[in-house]
Amino acid sequence: MDASARAMVEAIHGTNTQAVLYLSGGASQALGWLVSVPGASNTVLEAVVPYSRMSMVQLLGKVTAQFASRQTAQDMALMAYNRALKLSQPGYPVLGVGFTGSLASTRPKLGDHRFHVSTRTCDRLWASSVTLSKGLRTREQEDRVSSQFLLKAIAYACKIPATFDVELTDSETPDEYEMQFDEDQELEQLINGQICFKVYPFLSDMSKAERKIILSGSFNPLHAGHLKLLEVATSILGEGYPCFELSAENADKPPLTVSQIKQRVRQFENVGKMVIISNQPYFYRKAELFPGSAFVIGADTAVRLINVSQSNQKILL
């Protein structure tokens, strides 16, 4: 790793962005660069290398027509983003990174030497494809170039100006694609199940606590009892970060609309409290979505959960 790459890694680690990376078929040096510089734990939540065909199939949950493709990289980035949401500290910006490549191997390849990179944040999907000049580099050199490109993509997603050039020739022009999302589009993606939840921090201080202390409800409206219940529960439980959770999906009613969600979110903005919008109405699904969290429930919910005579017990659990 040269000095410019190291400086960029240090800049990435200096941000609050927390990332999950799914890499296959190249860019292995980038992962080494990221974790070899002090501060890696600030950035890297998890890195997975699904290298075999079956590993990739299990990761994606499907068999794709072509593993080394832009669409596969985008699918990997979206899955990494959702994984990062689950692993990140409350309220911190998260990043999903997908990389897939077909680089030089022990045997000559009939197709192009190429790689595809995609990043996903709360408001942006970015992807790029690069076709390398076949025979120009060794496998190690192609891996280095793809690693440089990946590192630059991560820096861009973290809003860090790139300070070094990727060692591409003039003919190796990246084919880039970018899509921006506004709040309404992001909430539509949540309702449709593309993303698992959205966090509204509404706080000036960011907690380093990993455990969430969650009070779920419909909050129609949010009232003083909700605020006091979470406050008391947090004081009893000790370490943890208090937040409210509202599901866009309902076990008994139609899902909330985007306008309804935004209206209820404004209540939390007015009192400066964190709220998470999810798409899981069932508590066992919430537990999977927020592993290691403590859930706070009111008396009415507690009765419904433990009373075996309640006809809707299965719905709640």
Automatic annotation (TrEMBL):
This is Cytidyltransferase-like domain-containing protein. GO terms for cellular component: cytoplasm; nucleus. It comes from Handroanthus impetiginosus. Gene3D superfamilies: CinA-like, HUPs. SUPFAM superfamilies: Nucleotidylyl transferase. PANTHER family: NICOTINAMIDE MONONUCLEOTIDE ADENYLYLTRANSFERASE (PTHR31285). Residues 215-305 form the Cytidyltransferase-like domain. It holds the Pfam family CTP_transf_like. It comes from the Eukaryota. GO terms for molecular function: ATP hydrolysis activity; nicotinamide-nucleotide adenylyltransferase activity.
